Amino acid sequence: MRTDDLTKHIARELRPLLGRGESASVTRLVMEDIFGYRSGNRPRKLTQEEQILAWTTINRLKAGEPVQYVTGIADFFGLQLKVTPDVLIPRPETEELVEWILEDHPPGTVHSVIDLGTGSGCIPLALQVRRPSWNCRGVDLSEAALEIARENARKLGVSVTFHHGDVLEESMSQGRYDVVVSNPPYIPPSERSRMDASTLEHEPELALFVPEENPLLFYRRLAELGHVGLKPGGRLYCETNEFNSEEVMKLFREAGYADVVRRKDLQKKWRMVRVTLPESDLDSA
């Protein structure tokens, strides 16, 4: 079998499950990231080992495993990051959150940033690549996730620091930051029925779900941490559940933050919130 034959075969096998458009996209990722073959390249014959790998890959995809876990690679903000089931697959809306931070902080500024619940490290890594003068850090509860984040930093050749910590217990003792950012767990179990089966079956629940009775748990903690970890005038950015972004905004207003705004993602869903710690905040003095 040649690479062009395999391309057609994978697309044909996945089409009944994913539809024509998504099956073509997944096939392209598989061929590029696993077999090093791009559409338009001269076809080559697959080795026996590659043919075995091809059937294994197809079976994993047909079983619903996300293509990023199958290839071990996720594209994020122009970067190729290693991902495993120990970390969430970076989403387009997280790219939009990174873009918002970059819009607010143009080149030439020197900033310190901490990402709480960093997972694969996608947020601080993308920021560090675009703003090399910044000092970016990442915190996560999962040691396995931190190993992935550190490996991504090594491969990209950027000096982001990652350390172990629980957001719910984090003291922010490392210093004060210009930017705090987080994509915290925010899905109550009652919303499972709205989620893709591939997410439920393969991505880490620790990074997805919050207690049903306390869906704003992590935002309350972020509000507390912002008062001790942000510099006066610093900003906190976070992703939110599209169904409770107004409640998140209210929480931050009541916690004493200014300039509380939210932003829709490209799907027209309220998914991002930005707040500012007032210059006169006493806890940050």
From TrEMBL:
Q: Which organism is it from?
A: Neolewinella litorea
The cross-references to NCBIfam families, in alphabetical order and at most eight, read: hemK_fam (TIGR00536), RF_mod_PrmC (TIGR03534)
Q: What GO terms in the biological process aspect are recorded for it?
A: methylation
UniProt xrefs under CDD domains: AdoMet_MTases
Q: Which UniProt keywords apply?
A: Methyltransferase, S-adenosyl-L-methionine, Transferase
Residue ranges annotated for the Methyltransferase small domain, each copy included = 109-187
Report domain Release factor glutamine methyltransferase N-terminal positions: 21-72
Q: What is its EC number?
A: 2.1.1.297
Q: List the PANTHER family hit by this protein, alphabetically.
A: HEMK METHYLTRANSFERASE, MTRF1L RELEASE FACTOR GLUTAMINE METHYLTRANSFERASE
Q: What is the name attached to this protein's record? A: peptide chain release factor N(5)-glutamine methyltransferase
The reaction(s) annotated as catalysed by this protein in its Swiss-Prot or TrEMBL entry are: L-glutaminyl-[peptide chain release factor] + S-adenosyl-L-methionine = N(5)-methyl-L-glutaminyl-[peptide chain release factor] + S-adenosyl-L-homocysteine + H(+)
Q: Which domain of life is it from?
A: Bacteria
Under which main EC class is this enzyme filed?
transferase
